[in-house]
Amino acid sequence: MVSRSYSNLLDLTSGGSPTFSRGGKKFPRVATVAGVLSDLDDENRSNGGSDAPSSISQERMIIVGNQLPLRAHRRESDGDKGWDFSWDEDSLLLQLKDGLGEDVEVIYVGSLKEEIDVSEQDDVAQTLLETFKCVPAFIPPELFSKFYHGFCKQHLWPLFHYMLPLSPDLGGRFDRSLWQAYVSVNKIFADKVMEVITPDDDFVWVHDYHLMVLPTFLRKRFNRVKLGFFLHSPFPSSEIYRTLPVRVELLRALLNSDLIGFHTFDYARHFLSCCSRMLGVSYQSKRGYIGLEYYGRTVSIKILPVGIHMGQLRSVLDLPETEAKVAQLRDKFQGKTVLLGVDDMDIFKGISLKLLAFEQLLTHHPDKRGKVVLVQIANPARGRGKDVQEVQSETYATVARINHVFGKPGYEPVVLIDTSLHFYERIAYYVIAECCLVTAVRDGMNLIPYEYIVCRQGTDKLDETLDLNPSAPKKSMLVVSEFIGCSPSLSGAIRVNPWNTDSVAEAMDSATMVPEAEKQMRHEKHYKYVSSHDVAYWAHSFLLDLERACRDHIRRRCWGIGFGLGFRVIALDPSFRKLSVEHIVSAYRRTKNRAILLDYDGTMTSQSAADMSPTAEAIGILNKLCRDPKNVVFVVSGKNKEILTRWFTSCENLAIGAEHGYFLRPQNSADWETCFVCQDFYWKQIAEPVMQLYTETTDGSFIEAKESALVWNYQLADPDFGSCQAKELHDHLESVLANEPVSVKSGQHIVEVKPQGVNKGLVAERLLAMMRKKEVLPDFVLCIGDDRSDEDMFEVIMSAKDDGSLSPVAEVFACTVGQKPSKAKYYLEDISEILRMFQGLADASEQSAKSVSFSPQRVLIDKKKKKKRKRDEVEAEYEARRYGVTEETKENKGESSVLGEKRKKMENPEDTMVPKEGFDDENKLLRTVFVGNLPLKLKKKEIVKEFTKFGEVESVRIRSVPIIDGKMPRKGAVIKKRINENGDSVHAYVVFKTEESAQASLAHNMAVVGGNHIRVDRACPPRKKLKGDDSPLYDNKRTVFVGNLPFDVKDEELYKLFAGIKNLETGIEAVRVIRDPGSSLGKGIAYVLFKTTDAANLVVKKHNLKLRDRELRLSHAKPNDTPSKRKISSQPDTNSSSGKRSAVASRTPDDANKVKAKANLSYQGLRASKSGTQKKVHTRIKLLAKSKSQPTMEQNSGKKKRPAVAARKEKALQAANASKLSGTKRKLGNRTPDNAGQKKKARKSM
Which residue intervals make up region (Disordered) (predicted)? Predict the structure, then answer.
């Protein structure tokens, strides 16, 4: 069944009145083009289109060729005029159907050999569609003549067979009108395909050079069409093909296919070379498949010669007519050796060269006269013109001369058959021939040798006719030209150069003199290949490769660009998208600590430019970015430091990395530094002579000597030869430098030798280290590069967020230049887009600087004071409501009850030190994830439904945890106001069936569930109260504090880690691993007691000591530094991680500011604004830091009450009364300087 759209079209052409529904209109399925229209289901109808679903459910192949595989016969009877059609059994398009499978519906699109009158075209189209599933393309005679006999046969066909139009007699000059006719006919074919195609399901297979621009028309209409193309003719070398005026248009049209097939590797190699030289598109071979990366799409290359239809040949061999013809020919050539040639009568088949070689055979070997006969079957020429007439006249003259010189009564040396033969007659000649000669000077494939081999295998009846033993081995001999497509697959044939008539004559003689056993061996080898690689095998293999090439269509985002025949489709992975300037500028404005990494070569300037120095525009943009105090800008290049110093001397604050990061300079006024200890570059004496050798033999190449590296550049050399030489040089250098501390890398038109470990990733690591040294975590990272060397930078910044080098809410933009496989998630097309993007960032920095400098300093100070007063008032108001401090409680309860029961419970050190949190089932820990910031009333089944997409959920545990419980809240847990009046939030533990599902669910972090941005992290074990805190382990000079450990680290891992340190003569006495109570989830700490103080000192000096890819923090344990004291001590240890979190207990202004800064850093970037609900939530968080630092009630007992208590009670009372009148957001009106001073003194006394 055909698609519904075509059935509706036939309704219109048949004269019937179309029925229009009054309901809402929906597009038919043929209009649901990926990237153009959304899928809409067709309405249920009762008309003739109701059978469409059956055609949609079945896999379908649309085969498009110049001619339909049909034979047409005109009925001339008076009562019944019309056309009769039948299948053309000899057509390759019909034969390949056997390889597609019975479950694949095949529809043919093509033209008819006969001219159909316009009045009959509708009836013929209806008949062909219903009977043969063929869609005819009716082409006007004049247009067809220009298309086929004009452009195809006068331009493409001669050029593809290596004949240049050097004179008007040899093909003629290029005619633009013929090219326009060629494009017009291809457009007609495209329209016919569009009538029947279901683009999401159908495969389209286009055949041969007649329809080379058809892929462009189909791809333009259906961006995700599954399209294959097979070229049945040779593809010329680039030197020949580049003479075609429309060379680029044809190449781009072919690249709009998903799979391009060729008969031999030579044809494919020439096509790939043309793409490389004329379009700059290079190919890659991966796992046996060759592919071209073309605008994000991978165009696959298929190399497989077509086969013959074994069933058809065998059925013809069994015909009685064949048996009778074989008997007739046996009697005719009795006692003679028959050499057979079957060729078309055209200039490329080499018939005249074959006749000259046979003439020479008879001349030099008189014994062959009368014994050897050459039967030449000359099929009618497919083309027409003067060259065909010349071939015919030359052939007839040569045959007449040979027969006149060497012929005698009863012996005719050459038998020329120039009339049409039935297929069985040709088969009979194959059967009786001892040798087959195919000496074409250029031919795409030529299946004559394959047919000959199968026919020589014969049948039992033919063996009886020829008086042969059916059980005896068969034999055959082949003499084939080197320039035909089947030659590489026939390894047992005698290959010849047809232009060398002497060698062809010797091959003919050898073929008649080969021993019988060798003939049998050659035949057996050929028959095994031909019978297994038939046309069904070829078609099935092509379909499998086409399915493989198209399997990623559904998940790619596609859109078209370009006009006319320059149209192409950009296909991108959903996670790889173009970087929007508006998006990155918006993120740039929101962030405060920015890191910008910029490759220079190929990113800021073109690598092919004569002058690669930065333009004035680029320098100006860099200066604007560097002047912004929030930015750290690093430019990385492969150039040496002298050149970069000269180019960027005007950029004072610009950090530069030279020679791919070997040399670094943090700013203009600083000295250059090296990333490695100074080493001897003696290896240059080995590498440079090798490079010099390849430079002398590769024209256009040169050596670029750097202080730390040697680079061989072949950008100006021939692309193919330069690439070949680069591969050889790479292998050569690797062999001679195998024992040296260097690495050999291949890049874009370069081969580089440099010290091991030097890459641009070092610059990224150095930049992040510089910002960590300033105690700043970047919340904006931009990295741009264009080639393989920049992938190291992308890898470092993409993984930096996981190892804690970036802010938890950092926005990371890894961007590559052009669409190609990369670790980056974004791309920009070219240098102009990059400069436009940087100009947007620079403008944002200038606007920000102007807005800050516009306000006087006094106004800024006043705003800060006003903000501080408002914060104090809101804190007092909140404390009154939270802890129940009212007039009634003040009068009826004592001072010890002012804060209320909740405050007492919160300040109980026992409750604070043992928070009941964590996942207590260690067996399920790795399969469990923590989910925070959930809506309060979320049910278990809703959580299960949300996380089932990652795998089967075993169980869910929901817990409600107070926000204020004596510790800082989880990082990122509070993003929106989702807390009740008691300040509670909800989190849960989700247990999966497998660890893989738990790992996959971590990608759900920051997803919106019930209006909340949830927090997903690994589940951690519960923190238990430690015993034995009085152990000398924590108060000893031999103890080392180890931070940033994995939460599930084992004692044995630390023993093994420290035991592997060199020069550590003494061992470990004790190890204590605990959870760090002050850190976020996923980290732990440990105390390691060594046997000697020297050992502890040695370990502390170690840098870059890692465990499970975590860089450990090592320091000496401080006196009285126990785990519990790190939690509650009023004398904080600022050198330890938990001590920093408890530093608020000291109540000093500096430490209080540190706590507030820590809280602000945790939530930086997660707040869209500071108004309304979010400001209120963050006020509570800051109050948490204050309340945590207050002494407990037990600590207050027995001590003199501080004057601050009365002041705090008075303020709380005023706030409670004010809230009743004006709400929680009303400011406290009467604030006197005395009150403010009293509060300040109270804080100092605390």
Answer: 1110-1246
pLDDT in tens, 731-762: 999 989 888 888 898 887 889 998 887 888 88
Across the strands, what pairs with 751?
712, 746
pLDDT digits 0-9 by tens, 946-986:
888 788 888 888 875 444 444 434 433 333 333 333 434 57
What's the one-letter identity of residue 652? E
State the first-to-last Cα distance of the chain, in angstroms, to the nearest integer: 89
Please name the residues in contact with 35: beta carbons below 8 A apart, sequence gap of 6 or more: 223, 224, 557, 558, 559, 560
Strands 1084-1090 and 1068-1075: what pairing? antiparallel
Length of the chain: 1246
CA atoms within 13 A on the CB side of 1029: 14
Mean pLDDT of 18-34: 33
Q: Are 28 and 53 in contact (CB under 8 A)?
A: no
Q: In sequence order, which ranges of 164-274 are alpha helices (DSSP H)?
A: 176-196, 214-221, 238-241, 247-254, 265-274
Contact (CB, 8 A) for 1118 and 1105: no
pLDDT at residue 861 is higher than 70: no
Question: Residue 674 to residues 337, 434, 665, 767: CA-CA distances in angstroms?
Answer: 82, 78, 9, 14
Which residues of 112-173 form beta strands (DSSP E)? 134-136
3-class SS at 1036?
coil
Report pLDDT for 1140: 36
The Cα 188–Cα 388 span in angstroms is 30
Closest CA to 538 of 1186, 1197, 98: 98
Angle at 343 between CA 161 and CA 95, to 5 degrees: 85
Where b means 16+ CB within 10 Å and e means fewer, 731-769 reads: ebbeeebeebebbbbeeebbbbbbbeebbbbbbbbbbbe
| 437 φ, ψ (degrees, to nearest 5) | -110, 120
> Would you report the helix, strand and coil content of the chain in percent, each value rounded to 5?
45, 20, 35
pLDDT at 755: 86
List the 1068-1075 sheet strands across, edge first: 1068-1075, 1084-1090, 1039-1045, 1113-1116
- Separation between Cα atoms, residue 1126 and residue 1133, nearest integer Å: 7
For residues 1056, 1061, 1062 and 1063, what is the CA-based torsion angle, rounded to 10 degrees? -100
* Residue entry with tokens 């596609």: 558
3-class secondary-structure state, position 568: strand
The C-alpha angle with vertex 1091 and arms to 1088 and 1092, in degrees rounded to 5, equals: 105
DSSP H helical ranges for 788-899: 791-800, 831-854, 857-883, 887-892
**620 alpha carbon, distance to own chain's centre:** 35
The DSSP H or E segment spanning 733 is helix 719-736
CB 1099 within 8 A of CB 1061: yes
| pLDDT, position 320 | 93
Farthest CA pair distance, the chain: 146
435 within 8 A of 342, measured Cβ to Cβ: no
Give the range among 147-161, 843-857, 963-977, 1046-1060 with minimum mean pLDDT.
Answer: 963-977
Q: Please give the backbone phi and psi of residue 232, each rounded to the nearest 5 degrees, phi first.
A: -90, -5
In 3D, which of 1107, 1137, 1104 has the Cα closest to residue 1123?
1137
Task: Output the CA–CA distances (angstroms, integers) from residue 3 to 28, 434, 486, 550, 1083, in the order listed.
Answer: 10, 52, 39, 21, 61
* Residue 456 contacts residue 466 (beta carbons within 8 Å): no
- pLDDT surpasses 60 at 1042: yes
The CA–CA distances, whole Å, from 929 to 939, 1005, 1016, 1044 equal: 17, 11, 7, 20
CA distance 43 to 24: 9
CA angle 576, 579, 584 (to 5 degrees): 130
